[in-house]
Design brief:
The chain contains 17 helices and no strands. With 448 residues, the chain is mainly alpha-helical. Helix 2 runs parallel beside helix 11, helix 8 packs antiparallel against helix 9 and helix 10 packs antiparallel against helix 11. The two termini are 24 Å apart. It is found in: Cell membrane. It is a multi-pass membrane protein.
């Protein structure tokens, strides 16, 4: 036997990947599960259920957009912490961590006051009007109080992930999800003689309390379990500028991403209340799948940054192949489960026949695109861990403005409505996945 066959291929073990990925999956799906539980509970209230469901879907999409945009410091701090962990230089980012948490807190306050003041203008831009617009304003002004809670929590979660630990975030997210679902039933429907039914406002209050629970737990793990602290240094950490630069590029990337989601919801709202209700269900299921698959992307983010810091390029290349394979398998499992219960899934969220008919007619496209999504999400995660924020920005700008938008315009013009929206999303994800795979192969395969 030749000596070559005795040399083991440098790889990250299956156990090491899943130690990060599985808790990240559970933590990741907790947030969309909160939104899905809100929609399921709100969509089954007796009074104005379709309007309430539409309002919850519009607000949920806008909240996700804002949080995704502002939470890019989570990704940036995760990448820097993991890279410094890999090079055994964690001491160099000790003052950076509390400065990043403060930055997220201040940004969240700014965004809250601006968006709460302009709530009517914002949701009118989604083509919401009448009762739907009234519902969106009241629901949003309560939900938006959670911005500081969520964004500080996310910054701390980024630190955890950089330290190769997603278990703490999982525990926080599960607790928050359980609190939210329990309070949803109590506050939305009420209890005769004890708690009045608060409908949409009740769901919003439940979410705020759940976010507070998550933050309290995250602070506990941060203070007790990590080598970092909350005490601020007024000497700016030299890594703060690279972090802000990385976060700014990811900000622009996520802005482009959310322009696509905004356009989708705006067009659906313009088609009518049944269309935006169906779109709300489809979008939240798509987001749920995305966060589910994103657990392996989080593993790629955390481990990829660490391997880059250690200059272990062969292990990095093998990591990309392994996590892509695992993610595609998960996508296929999700597709299979949803195919079996295809008609029953819509009934969880709403009983209106027109809404369910629209949902069922398009849901197959959401399922068909999942393997493509998984590849895009995997390489998104790895590129974030490697600090490749500029390339990620450019890919999203091209995919949104040269892929998604033209496709939507053309297919909407010929009257495809919800089909136009979801075919445009499919094109969008194809561009993203192809661009990331080609770039990674050209840059890192040669370094192995």
């Amino acid at each position: 036997m030749s000596s070559k066959t005795n040399i083991k291929t440098p790889k990250v073990s299956f156990k090491e990947i899943n130690t990060i990925a599985i808790p990240a999956i559970i933590a990741g799906i907790a947030e969309p599960l909160i939104s899905l539980s809100d929609i399921a509970i709100i969509g089954n209230v007796e009074e104005n259920a379709v309007e309430a469901l539409a309002a919850a879907g519009i607000v949920g999409s806008f909240l996700s957009a804002i949080i995704w945009i502002l939470a890019q410091t989570k990704t940036a701090i995760s990448a820097l912490v993991s890279q410094h962990l890999g090079s055994n230089r964690l001491h160099a980012v000790k003052t950076l961590v509390p400065q990043t948490i403060l930055l997220n807190f201040l940004l969240s306050l700014l965004i809250y006051f601006i968006t709460a003041f302009f709530a009517e203008l914002i949701f009118s831009a989604y083509n919401a009007e009448g009762l739907i617009l009234d519902y969106t304003k009241s629901y949003y002004r309560i939900r938006a109080l959670g911005y500081p809670l969520t964004l500080v929590t996310f910054a701390i979660f980024g630190v955890f992930r950089g330290l190769q630990n997603t278990l703490w975030a999982m525990k926080c997210s599960l607790a928050g999800g359980a609190v939210n679902i329990g309070l949803d039933f109590l506050l939305v429907y009420g209890i005769d003689g004890f708690i009045p039914a608060m409908h949409l406002e009740g769901a919003a209050i439940a979410s705020i309390i759940a976010q507070g629970v998550m933050l309290a737990m995250a602070l506990y793990y941060f203070i007790k379990k990590t080598p970092f602290y909350l005490k601020l240094s007024f000497n700016l950490n030299p890594n703060l500028k690279p972090l802000i630069s990385m976060a700014s590029n990811l900000f622009l990337r996520t802005l482009a991403l959310n322009i696509a989601i905004y356009l989708a919801n705006s067009y659906a709202t313009d088609y009518g209340k049944n269309y935006i209700a169906a779109q709300s269900i489809l979008m939240n299921i798509w987001l749920f799948f995305s966060f589910f698959i994103d657990g392996y992307a989080n593993a790629g983010n955390a481990i990829g940054g660490k391997l880059l810091g250690a200059k272990a390029y062969t292990k990095l290349w093998n990591l990309s192949k392994d996590i892509s394979k695992y993610a595609v398998i998960i996508a296929l499992i999700l597709m299979g489960i949803c195919a079996i219960f295809y008609n029953e899934i819509g009934l969880i969220f709403n009983k209106d026949e027109q809404v369910l008919m629209l949902f069922s007619s398009v849901f197959w496209i959401v399922l068909l695109m999942q393997p493509v999504n998984s590849i895009a999400f995997m390489f998104d995660g790895i590129f974030k861990g490697l600090g490749e924020a500029k390339y990620l920005r450019n890919v999203l700008l091209i995919a949104t403005f040269l892929g998604f938008w033209p496709t939507l315009l053309i297919l909407d013009y010929i009257g495809l409505k919800l089909y136009a929206i979801w075919i445009a999303f499919f094109v969008w994800m194809l561009i993203r996945s192809i661009a990331l795979v080609v770039k990674f192969r050209s840059k890192y395969l040669a370094a192995t």
